[in-house]
Amino acid sequence: MKLKFRSKIYLGMFSMLLLLGIVILSLVSRIMSESLLEENRNRGISIGVNLAARMVEPMLAMDFLRMKTFIDQTVQLSDDIFYSFVLDADKNPLVYTFKGGFPIDLKTVNSVSDQQKFSIRLLDSGDHLIYDYAVPIFIGKDRIGTVRLGLLRTKVRKAINRIRLSAFLATGFVILIAGFLGTFFARTVTRRIKILHESTEQALRGNLEIHTAPLLKENCWDIMQCGKQECPAFGNLHHRCWYTAGTLCPTCVEGEYAKKIFSCQACPVYRKCAGDEIQSFAESFDTMTQSLKSHLLEQQNAKKILKEQRELLQTILDVIPDFVSLQDRHSVYKSVNKAFCKIVGKNEDEIIGKTDFDLFPRQQAETHQQEDLEIFSTGQSLIKESKLVGPKETKWLHVVKIPVLEADGKVWGILCSGRDITELKQVQELLSQSQKMEAVGQLTAGIAHEINTPLGIILGYTQLLIEDTAPDSQVYEDLTMIEKQTRICRKIVSDLLKFSRYTESAITLLDMNQLIEEAIPVVEHTFELDRVTIVRDYGSDLPAVKGDNDKFKQVFINLFGNAHDAIETNGTIHIKTEYDKKNNEVVIYVGDTGSGIAPDRIDRIFNPFYTTKPAGKGTGLGLSVTFGIINDHGGRIRVESPPSTTSNIFDTVQSTVFIIRFPVAHH
Fold it and tell me: Which of 126, 281, 326, 629 is the most exposed place for a label (fewest CB within 10 A)?
């Protein structure tokens, strides 16, 4: 658990005081100890030198009684003098104070030369530590003996311990007093910080009616003797005048706090009322909460007005019969009206934040994307008629896309509006179809009357002549050629009638695998005669597709026939179906091992009356009819010759692949 700020102050303060006390105690103890030891050293030397001077006369007279008296008197001077004795020039003891006899080892433990005035050694007797002093005795320049003196260290050590104890007690007392004083000041500081902390928490909870700074003993109107009640600072007990904008003092600078604070620092009110840093912090905090409260109120009012305007605008947009949508630069929908939701078939919540790729089929979304990119790059509006293939029905829309500009002239987004012109298109289509049917009907009637009857007669008589002609004759070959060309003419007329005839489609849910399987027997027998085999590779769990059963069969019969014509003999037609989950489409591949299509012709093969087959072998209407049926059912068809890497999915090598895509039916 982390320490609180007050605990940290206490801990830091006591740690500093304790460290300071230890340092002071150590320094005082060391200085006092050295002083006492130095004093004890000088005292021992003084006693030894004095005793050596007094021993000169008794030693010359060899008065052992006086010498004994002198050393006994010396030992009696203090209880820390442990022993004293005198050695002659040969270092033999003359007199001593030992009661149990003279310790021989003591003679040589501390020697002093003639050049030294004294010598000091610290001896350990096992029971005591003794400072041993040796002082030479001279008569003139001749040395006649040595005085030895032993002072116990115990007394000095006791004195040092007493000094250390006194210093420790004094230091502890000082630390205690300083701790109490520091605690008082720390508590004052932390109490004010705690008030700030509690005020901050209240502000975070949304309570901005808090007052952290203490009340002043004198306010600005008292100090300045001002009676201007219209001044915003007058009567405001909780906010300082130097933080208040628009005050009426002659010395105040107009404007916000940032503009007037420097001039206020020279004001007598500021000099008298301004506090320390914590008080300034509390005053700034109160001003901040007051300012924040004002800004929040302004934002709430602005938000309320904006919401009302937004609801009004949305109401207007929703009652407009035209659909309206707004997209940003990333083609993300930001706003739509009810008409747009109805067109797309989704709720507003399901559209906002999405792109065209989330709402429309991939091909349609890509078209929208290209249009939007063009508007972003040019800044020009777009007007078009668009075909919208929905899950239930197909609609025609008149669409206007207008760029939405920012203040700097950059295109921010696109405002799209439009209206449903499906009924108008249906009327136009019916009118066009009616006119077309009228013209085609007249043409077909003329063709049937003018061509079919003669062709039938020619074909009939030709077949009769063939029966009466020898097969190996030139006439037989000529008649056979006439029969063949007549049949071609009849097929041209038949295809022309199919291309021109308009019939209503019977839309049902279709299983593509089953439908293809029903179409194959129509052509399979003929293909087997030319050794052309059909290989099936049906995908499992294929979703259903909406369409006209007979027209779809016509599509595949046309594609199979086109593949057979490209192969002629000895080849393979490969059929593969699969489900594209990403684009929610059923994909059919029809590939063949035929001669292929030249690159310069591949873009025109779906045009009416265009064919790559030799003269007499095709009308140029089969693929055009196929393209029209697929397009009417919302599908797409394209051809690759040779197939690309992604499209060449068959085991056998293919020269041409037709790729057909149908949207999956929505149940």
Answer: 126
d(CA 7, CA 13): 10
At residue 235, φ and ψ (nearest 5 deg) are 80, 0
- Amino acid occupying residue 583: N
Q: Which residues contact 496 (CB under 8 A, 6 or more apart)?
A: 444, 447, 619, 621
- How far out from the chain centre does Cα 116 lie? 87
Kindly report the length of the chain.
Answer: 667
Q: Is 444 exposed, middle or buried (0-12, 13-18, 19+ CB in 10 A)?
A: middle
Contact 520, 574 (CB under 8 A): no
Contact yes or no for 600/591 (Cβ under 8 A)? no
Determine the pLDDT at residue 653. 61
Query: CA 285: distance to chain centroid?
Result: 32
Strand residue runs (E) in 390-496: 394-405, 411-420
Helix (H, G, I), strand (E, B) or coil at 33: helix
Triad 648, 649, 650: Cα angle to 5°? 100
Stronger pLDDT, 126 or 544, i.e. the higher one: 544
Helix count and strand count (H, E) for the chain:
18, 17
- 8 Å CB contact between 611 and 619: yes
Enter the tokens of residue 520. Answer: 């194959």
Closest CA to 255 of 266, 265, 244, 239: 244
Mean pLDDT, residues 350-373: 86
Positive or negative CA dihedral for 369, 375, 378, 383? Answer: positive
CA–CA separation, 135 vs 84, rounded Å?
11
pLDDT score recorded for residue 297 = 83
CA 444 from chain centre, in angstroms, equals 70
Residues 77/47, Cβ–Cβ less than 8 Å = yes
Q: How far apart are the first and last CA of the chain?
A: 63
Residue bearing tokens 């938000």: 303
Cα–Cα distance measured from residue 418 to residue 401, given in angstroms and rounded to the nearest whole number: 9
- Supply the pLDDT for residue 660: 92
Cβ–Cβ under 8 Å, residues 137 and 51: no
Q: Are 655 and 641 in contact (CB under 8 A)?
A: yes
Q: Which of these, 626, 592, 624, 591, lies nearest to 605 by C-alpha position?
A: 624
When computed from its CA atoms, the radius of gyration of the chain, rounded to whole angstroms, is: 60
- pLDDT tens digit sequence for 273-329: 666 666 666 667 676 777 777 777 888 888 888 888 877 777 776 767 778 888 888
Q: What are the pLDDT digits (tens) for 382-431?
A: 888 877 666 667 777 788 888 888 878 788 888 888 887 887 777 676 56
CA-to-CA dists, residue 159 to 31, 83, 128, 165, 167, angstroms: 13, 21, 16, 10, 12
Q: What angle, 0 to 180 degrees and rounded to 10, lies between the N-to-C axes of helices 549-567 and 622-632?
A: 140
CA distances from 263 to 226, 233, 244, 258 (A): 19, 16, 13, 10
